[in-house]
Design a protein that fits this description.
heterodimer, A: about 375 residues, alpha+beta, 2 domains, two-stranded antiparallel ribbon, 12 strands, B: about 260 residues, alpha/beta, Rossmann fold, seven-stranded mixed β-sheet, four-stranded antiparallel β-sheet, about 35% helix, globular
């Protein structure tokens, strides 16, 4: 295909009609830049959301085999999991319901027997969330770490004693050796050592679940499949916390819709400029046709012109959007989360995002140019020259 | 390519255009015959004028010859090819290669220089830019504008623009150059200049010209005058030396 003639005329229109060119390219530039900045903030928001949540929740939870109350041979399973590449933490837990009482106060909690090191690697509770005391000290036996909410409800301080009891369980007196606050409502949790929990429920060396944390959260499904093949029940974070996925997806979808709309509106800028061009150039199009330009050449000329306008706007917009995102990212904009923590919102933009928006802008501008280009190509030369 | 075969069985190379029983009817409440049974042969190298009152159908005939309009019935043979039977693309290609147009208003592209305007038909044909530039330069020198090649249409006078338009019409070495009231917008002096230019080209490269005009002075400088009234060819005159001789058709029409 020889498009020298079409390119020659299209480029000259673009160069000599500065105001219209500026209008069309400017509209696309701003729309693409705005879209990219918005995408960058959404990417950043997702990253923050995922990092906050996945700092605290397990990625895979393994439960006992069907019909069993406990995982009996959990040590073998824990060892094989620890040997699996991509696994960051493996935390066996013996969880039982318990009633904690102190003076007149009573509070039901999930009493978790746990290994403090693994729990810390899983959720950061030991190293990041302790208000008082020390998570490791539960290993001393007959000690308990409770949440800030439980401590307030039962009026407990570090070193105070409480009684843990439950029907069918062995009541025991425990000393508060730590108080934690994760910022999320984990008020119904209390941690003891695995030995203390075994004593409480009166069982041997068993656990009720094993929590696993992964390097790559999307590895969860394959791990789940492997565990299930060994007869245990297992669920990934996607099933355990579906609301996380839903929030991210919803955010993504509504954002994409709004951004598409903005890009489509900017394409109307090109459609408008191209329409004006065809109207203004009707006589010249007639002359080009009488000189022998075929309707295909005329169509190509105007499509090429809107494509060039769209592509230039798209490229400039990508540049502006990318630079703005880098700048906004460098500002370390801080927001406070509902839980009171300060979160830095990063602006993240990938090459594939830029390529996608550039392609989208190009396709939209070609679509915007299609109607005026078709109209130009269907002009009758005699009628056109008379106008 | 189909060639016109004459009675002797040989394609007559000299017949650039042959029009046979050509009708153009505009349908409506009342049918209007814009062209009513036109028969005409135009030979290579002719310098011919079509005259007639406005609305007589002379521009319609010119548009037919120029492949810008299609007849209701009849044939137009351009170098032996029946142009009423070909596709839109082929018509565009023939307009580009075989025809050159000069209109009353020059219709130059305002964003392009004189040189680029003359290059345009060649670029449409797919000729390389450098080659087109060289040819265009030659034609602009031929029309006496070798020193204004980089001027835009708004920097040139009406006569100069019309000369650029003539150069553009010649760019692809067409078989026929068609002029529709090409001096209609110019003063007498400039009209004479354009006429001299066309006549020079007619003599020098045997270029065929068909001019539709109101201007009797211009018409009388050509070699053959066709008068059209109400879509009919009513009178034909040919130059013999310094005067015109009416043909039989004309005399019959005048006798009526």
């Amino acid at each position: 295909m020889n498009s020298r003639f079409e390119l020659f005329v299209a480029m000259r229109h673009i160069k000599s009609r500065r105001r219209q060119t500026l209008l069309a390219v400017g509209a696309v530039t701003l729309a693409v830049a705005f879209t990219i900045i918005s995408r960058a903030s959404i990417n950043g928001f997702e990253e923050v959301l995922l990092s906050i949540v996945f700092k605290m929740v397990p990625h895979v939870v393994i439960s006992p085999k069907d019909g069993e109350d406990y995982i009996y041979l959990y040590r073998t399973l824990v060892e094989s999991l620890q040997a699996t590449s991509g696994v960051i933490a493996v935390s066996p837990m013996l969880i039982s319901a318990a009633t904690l009482s102190h003076e007149d106060g009573v509070q039901n909690v999930a009493l978790c027997g746990t290994l403090p090191r693994e729990l810390d690697r899983m959720s950061g509770i030991g190293s990041q969330s302790m208000l008082a005391g020390d998570l490791d000290s539960i290993q001393g036996g007959l000690r308990i770490v409770i949440s800030k909410e439980v401590a307030e409800d039962l009026d407990l301080k570090l070193g105070d004693g409480l009684e843990a009891s439950f029907p069918d369980a062995h009541s025991m007196n425990l000393v508060v050796c730590g108080i934690f606050d994760t910022g999320v409502e984990w008020d119904e949790l209390a941690f003891v050592s695995l030995e203390t929990a075994r004593e409480f429920v009166g069982e041997g060396d068993v656990v009720t679940e094993i929590q696993v944390k992964l390097q790559d959260i999307y590895q969860a499904d394959s791990l789940v499949a492997r565990i299930r093949s060994q007869g245990y029940r297992a669920d990934s974070w996607q099933r355990l916390f579906p609301e996380i996925l839903r929030t991210i997806r919803l955010e993504s979808v509504s954002n994409s819709l709004i951004m598409s709309l903005i890009l489509i509106i900017s394409a109307f800028g090109i459609a408008n400029v191209m329409n004006m061009l065809v109207l203004e150039k009707t006589g010249e199009i007639g002359m080009l046709m009488s000189m022998g330009a075929s309707s295909r050449q005329v169509l190509r000329l105007f499509l090429l012109e809107s494509g060039i306008l769209g592509l230039s706007g798209g490229l400039l917009g990508c540049l502006l959007g990318y630079v703005s995102s880098l700048y906004l990212n460098s500002l370390n904009l801080a927001f406070s989360s509902p839980a009171g923590q300060t979160i830095n919102l990063p602006f993240l933009i990938g090459l594939q995002d830029l390529a996608a928006y550039l392609t989208f802008a190009l396709i939209l501008s070609l679509a915007a140019g299609l109607y005026p280009a078709r109209r130009a190509s269907r002009l009758d030369p005699i009628e056109a020259m008379r106008s | 390519m189909k060639h016109r075969i004459d009675e002797a069985g040989v394609w007559n190379n000299n017949h650039i255009i042959e029009i046979v029983n050509l009708f153009k009817v505009y349908r409506g409440g009342v049918d209007v015959k814009a062209l009513d049974n036109i028969n005409l042969v135009i030979e290579e190298g002719e310098f011919l004028a079509i005259v007639g009152p406005s609305g007589s159908g002379k521009s319609t005939l010119l548009n037919m010859i120029g492949l810008l309009d299609t007849p209701t019935s009849g044939k137009i043979l351009l170098k032996g090819i029946d142009i009423t039977q070909i596709s839109a693309d082929e018509r565009a290609r023939l307009r580009n290669r075989e025809l050159g147009f000069v209109f009353q208003y020059h219709h130059l592209l305002p964003e392009f220089t004189a040189l680029e305007n003359v290059m345009m038909p060649m670029l449409i044909a797919g000729v390389k830019k450098e080659e087109a530039r060289a040819t265009a330069l030659q034609f602009l020198e031929d029309v006496g504008l070798g020193d204004r090649i980089n001027s835009r249409p708004n920097q040139l006078s009406g006569g100069q623009n019309q000369r650029v338009a003539v150069a553009r019409a010649l760019a692809n070495h067409p078989s026929v150059v068609i002029g529709d009231e090409l001096t209609g917008n110019l003063d007498t002096k400039t009209s004479d200049l354009i006429y001299d230019l066309l006549r020079k080209l007619n003599k020098k490269i045997n270029q065929t010209f068909i001019l539709v005009t109101h201007d009797t002075e211009l018409a009388e400088k050509t070699d053959r005058i066709l008068r059209i009234v109400d879509g009919k060819l009513v009178c034909e005159m040919r130059r013999e030396g310094d005067r015109f001789v009416s043909t039989e058709v004309c005399q019959t029409a005048e006798a009526e």
